[in-house]
Design brief:
With 374 residues, this protein is of the alpha/beta class. The protein folds into two domains: 1-53 and 146-212 and 333-374, FAD/NAD(P)-binding domain; 91-143 and 214-331, 2-Layer Sandwich (D-Amino Acid Oxidase, Chain A, domain 2). 32% of the residues lie in helices and 29% in strands. The chain contains twelve helices and 17 strands. Strands 3, 4, 5, 6, 11, 12, 13, 14 and 15 form a nine-stranded mixed beta sheet that branches. α1 links the parallel β1 and β2. The chain is elongated, with a radius of gyration of 21 Å. The structure holds flavin-adenine dinucleotide. The site of flavin-adenine dinucleotide has 41 residues, from α1, α2, β11, β15 and α12.
């Protein structure tokens, strides 16, 4: 007989307390299910708290994924309203400094994804863009939360207001036949969802490897308060060739060619600009993408310099750096997220496109409906 961590049998056991696991816990608990979350660490320390907290709709891949992100944005907004979770930004300012970037934005606005978005002159934005910025795509859809505060906040609501049970410091070593086995004992489940993020060497590692899911590493910085207020998140030309909602438009090809000539080093390091602001005025600015050595623990100054170079073209001289960190997430060439059933009543969900904060609730809702739990 194995040691039990808890004697309850849960309707739903969730492995992983990142944003994807917590989104499942929130929606399942709202539907009245008895839910437990098992987390390897003492708190969520991985991608979900290292990100920008930027819930992005505009720029996500047209169609199904875009809709999942819009649903996610609405659920985040609903949680914020019901529970007083602080929303720091509303909207996105995508600053174009090349005619080719303006071409992508104009094409984007002609699609259904452009609904409620519009082009502004830089002077109409209240953001002191440099003179190089020709025009700005404004989207009202995006919101931003401070992830390192929002996740503990959500855990607190789940635990204290919604009755979700949490087991921290309990890596799940195997999960089968209605029991999740941790190093501290087992827990019984009727259904389970495994949301391991980029822990690719743990549960279902063979399946994950066979599907070509890998990791990438990002560099991030916090800059001191620049002395003005951002109303929304800021992005630039480089983002128009990374986010599929823009980059899959035919007009993106001309921009890609131009960037290849003018910013080849930025493209090589997978750099694009996202700049968002926190309550104290400081900025979270990034990022880069290293697909070759994602486990290497070191970050590189020249990559931060390239990110700040892009910042200086768009917003001007960057304020001093206060903090630096790296983060990793799961990535795959041909899928945005994995939704698999590795065994009976167990689902494996991994977001593989670096947009988990933007898609988690939509994906969780879809998955729980497929499992016939909603
Ligand atoms: C620097 C950076 C910036 C980003 N910016 C954004 C952004 O602005 N907007 C956006 O939408 N997305 C962004 N992303 C992507 C987003 O953060 C991820 O897609 C998302 O956090 C993935 O969530 P997750 O819950 O799947 O994974 P994670 O956050 O990695 O959580 C997985 C959890 O599962 C636990 N776990 C794993 N295996 C086990 C096990 N066997 N037993 C128990 N626990 C286990 C881990 O300890 C971990 O806490 C960014 C990512 C990074 C790294």
């Amino acid at each position: 007989m194995c040691n039990m961590l808890d004697n309850e049998k849960y309707d739903l056991v969730i492995v992983g307390a990142g944003v994807v696991g917590l989104a499942h816990a929130y929606l399942a608990s709202l539907a009245g299910l008895k839910v437990a979350v098992i987390e390897a660490n003492s708190a969520p320390f991985m991608a979900s708290i290292r990100n920008f907290g930027f819930v992005t709709v505009t720029g996500q891949q047209r169609g199904h994924f875009y809709n999942l992100c819009m649903r996610t944005r609405n659920i985040w907004a609903d949680i914020a309203q019901k529970h007083n979770l602080k929303v720091l930004h509303q909207g996105l300012y995508m600053a174009a400094r090349r005619p080719e970037a303006e071409g992508v934005i104009e094409a984007f606005l002609k699609t259904e994804m452009g609904e409620k978005c519009r082009i502004l002159k830089p002077s109409e934005t209240d953001i002191p863009f440099t003179a190089k910025i020709k025009s700005v795509l404004y989207s009202p859809h995006e919101i931003r939360v401070e992830s390192r505060e929002a996740l503990p906040f959500l855990i607190n609501i789940l635990k204290n207001e919604m009755g979700v049970k949490f087991f921290f410091n309990s890596p799940v070593l195997s999960i089968t036949n209605g029991k999740a086995y941790t190093n501290n004992g087992a827990i019984k489940y009727a259904n389970a969802v495994v949301c391991p993020g980029d822990n690719l060497n743990g549960l279902y590692s063979e399946l994950i490897a066979s599907l070509g899911i890998k990791k990438c590493k990002l560099q991030m910085m916090r800059l001191e308060n620049p002395g003005f207020k951002f109303k929304g998140a800021i992005m630039s030309d480089l983002g128009l060739t990374r986010y599929l909602g823009y980059s899959e438009l035919p007009e993106a090809e001309a921009l890609r060619k131009k960037l290849q000539k003018e910013q080849a080093e930025h493209l090589k390091e997978g750099i694009h600009l996202i700049a968002v602001q926190s309550s104290d005025g400081s900025l979270v600015v990034g990022d880069s993408h290293d697909y070759q050595n994602p486990d290497a623990p070191f970050s590189h100054d020249y990559i931060d310099d390239l990110i700040l170079d892009e910042y200086s073209h768009v917003i001007g001289a960057p304020p001093p750096i206060r903090e630096r960190w790296t983060g990793t997430y799961a990535t795959a060439a041909n899928r945005l997220y994995l939704d698999d059933t590795p065994e009976e009543n167990v689902k494996l969900i991994i977001v593989t496109c670096g947009a988990g904060a933007s898609s988690a609730f939509g994906i969780a809702e879809e998955n729980l409906i497929n499992m016939e739990l909603l």
